[in-house]
Amino acid sequence: MFPAKGCTKFYEFLKVAYDGGMSEPFATRFKESSAKGDIEGMIKVLMDIPCVKNTNVAESYRGKDDVKAAEIYCKIRGTIVENGEQESRISVLAETLFMASVTSRLFLEVLFDCAQSCYDSGAFVSCLRYCECMLALPASFYDRTAESMNDFFERRKACVYLESECSKMLKRSSSREKGTSGTKRASNPKTPAVDGKPNSLLQSCSDAVALEFDEKRGRHLVATRNIKAGTVLIVESPFACTTNKDALDTNCLHCHASLKPTGSVKIPCRSCRAVFFCSERCRKEAWQAYHRYECLFLDAFYEDRPADTQKQVSHLLLAYRMTIAGSLSPKRRTVAVDNDHDDKTDDDEIPLLNDEHVRRLAAAAEENRNRLGRSEIYQFQDYRTVLALETHCAALDPNVNLVRGIEAIFLTKCFTLVLGKMDVVCLEEAFLWLAIGMMHHLQAITCNAYEIVENVYNKEIHVWEPREIGGAIYPSVSLVNHSCYPNVVRHSYPAGTVMVRTLRFIGKGSEILDCYGPHFLSESRLQRREHLGKKYRFLCECEACVGNWQFPLPQTIAYKCKTCSEPVGSFSLNGNVEKDGRRASTNVPQRCRCNEKKLDRKKLYAQFRKSIDKRLNAISRMYEGQYAQALPQLIEHINFIEKFFVAPNSETIKTQQCIIQCYNRFGCTSQ
Fold first, then answer.
1. Mean pLDDT of 646-654
2. What's the mean pLDDT when you consider all of the chain?
3. Element (H or E) spanning 25, and its range?
4. Which of 78, 264, 351, 538 is surrounded by the most beta carbons within 10 Å?
5. β-bridge partners, 235
């Protein structure tokens, strides 16, 4: 276990290093490298500054507190639990477990108490999670006295019994539920696969899309065939992800599952008091993959900052984890929880630092960018896809690059300090390439990171509202360009997996377009373009910006010519109805310039009213919680609107918002 020590605060390091970088001769040298987009040159300049070179970082984390844990536990030890008080008792036990050292007998006692309390209250799944945690503890954690060993093995034996009993009870419960008509919401929704065949070159994508490149749009995805609304185009796990500070107490650090629902458990980290996990499996996977490299410094990543800069803090941790995933071998592994009750543990396994691999990939980043996804398979776990992400390094203000460079060196100092404690030697050349990679990631995150969300139901307005709980890098999703009127939408699923679904029909050869934030429904064209230009370095020329679409939309809807898609007459959505059953027409020609025959507007209007009824019926089903039944009706309605009427129109927007609500419900949710 790691001892708690003082630390050099990140803000302290940033201030000293920034002052050094602004002094001569370093300032001039740094600006020259910045103008060229030379990350290696910028890092070398900063490493030459004496205060940067000579300042060491120290550990910064909250260690366990057995004294406080004992105080909390004493308040409930041996108390008789009245009806309705069991949940409160379990909550106090979880708090004690969070505080206690994993090597203490107190931890064993409280952990078993958690399992027994869950069993007594009928929370059998939670009981199994605590038993799983107990059975994963190695005997080597505890002293070898006869009394201690007897206590350890007695607890294990008791958990084996509880595990067996819980399995029996859950099996009986499952048998009773078979054949019932009610539908029970799964706490962890199953992530669907892409529709159609998997793409042969883009690992996370459907074969309905392909990667193309041109000078104006850069790398982008296009449809290889006509794609219907509701189609799943991309299902991708994150290359790396992180958790926001305000979600540390409410969500699993590893899979981001909500810890709020009744019956969920909070498995603590064995070393720090900063994070929780929903299961022993998540704890072990997180520890092996990244948490053991950050546990010593977690408070430095989440140190108190103003609310408007908290996202930047999570970006630091995301860049750190990206470097861990890319520079250590093996990069990925599936971990099975140890259930054979022996003393083996791989928590102390020595990692392999592959800095030569990082150096080679960084040197070939441009070549990889042109090849991956076009002649070579584009895989989300491939570090080359991350190093190929756009950074706009040369276009950034030198002061911004200066801050990013200082952040990169601070993070690299943290990383190498942890590696040193694991007997991994990090030479100066390795430090340089780790810092280069770290700075690249920090720059790329600004325009390539995506949010991880869970959806919370608002009972007053019957809406699933997204709550951001973390951030992630998705190499394939990053290939999708922006539109202020997107044709796809993203949704989060367990373990940070993201799914990209179509909102409406996309024709063959059309570009797949996501929304990076500003939407024409909420912001003016000027506001959207200013935001996108500042953050992503492009002038948006999507159809909403070119046509200067403005919200609220007119309460009219125009018929679409079947040949050229131009307007062919229109009617009011809320105006008076004429004697022949049509709504009052606006002064638009009924025949298109392409000489297409006149539309049977009376017939089409009648079909429109019937289709509207489908949307209204779908909304009623949504209010009743029948989202799976509502979605097909919504998709059928939007297909009709898209086929016969010109965009933008309020009917399309209303239907898309309903479709998004269904998607929200199918993804990660919370109470």
1. 92
2. 86
3. none
4. 264
5. 499
The number of helix segments (H) and strand segments (E) in the chain equals 23, 17
Cβ neighbours, 10 Å, residue 440: 23
How would you classify residue 598: left for phi > 0, otherwise alpha for psi between -120 and 50, otherwise beta? Answer: beta
Q: Cα(554)–Cα(40) distance, rounded to whole angstroms?
A: 54
Please determine, for residue 9, whether its predicted confidence score (pLDDT) is greater than 80: no
**Mean pLDDT score, 477-481:** 96
CA pair distance 48, 23, nearest whole angstrom: 12
Sole residue written with tokens 């034996």: 157
Interaxial angle between packed helices 310-327 and 355-363, expressed in degrees from 0 to 180 and rounded to the nearest 10: 110
Contacts of 340-346 with CB under 8 Å at 24 or more apart are 341/135, 341/156, 342/138, 343/138, 343/139, 343/140, 344/138, 345/138, 345/140, 346/288
- Asked whether the beta carbons of 232 and 501 are under 8 A apart, the reply is yes
Give one word for 532, left, alpha or beta, with left for phi > 0 and alpha for psi -120 to 50: alpha
- CA–CA separation, 666 and 660 (whole Å): 10
Tokens of 604: 């089409």
The closest of 274, 238, 197 to 493, measured between CA atoms, is 238
pLDDT in tens, 481-532: 999 999 999 999 988 999 999 999 999 999 999 999 889 999 999 999 999 9
d(CA 39, CA 432): 10
* Distance set, CA 225 to CA 85, 177, 636 (Å): 59, 43, 19
pLDDT band per the 50, 70, 90 thresholds, residue 364: confident
Q: CA-CA distance, 559 to 569, in Å (whole number)?
A: 6
Give the span between the Cα atoms of 583 and 571, in whole angstroms. Answer: 5
Which of 223, 250, 232, 241 shows the shortest CA–CA distance to 191?
232
How many CB atoms lie under 10 A from the CB of residue 404? 25
The token pair that represents 334 in the structure block: 């599936």
- Spell out the alpha helix ranges (H) of 383-487: 383-387, 398-421, 428-448
- Cα 354 → chain centroid: 27
Asked if 618 and 637 touch (Cβ cutoff 8 Å), the reply is yes
Per the DSSP assignment, residues forming a β-bridge with 352 are 329
What one-character DSSP code corresponds to residue 504? S
Q: How far apart are CA 34 and CA 399, in angstroms?
A: 9
Name residue 362's amino acid: A
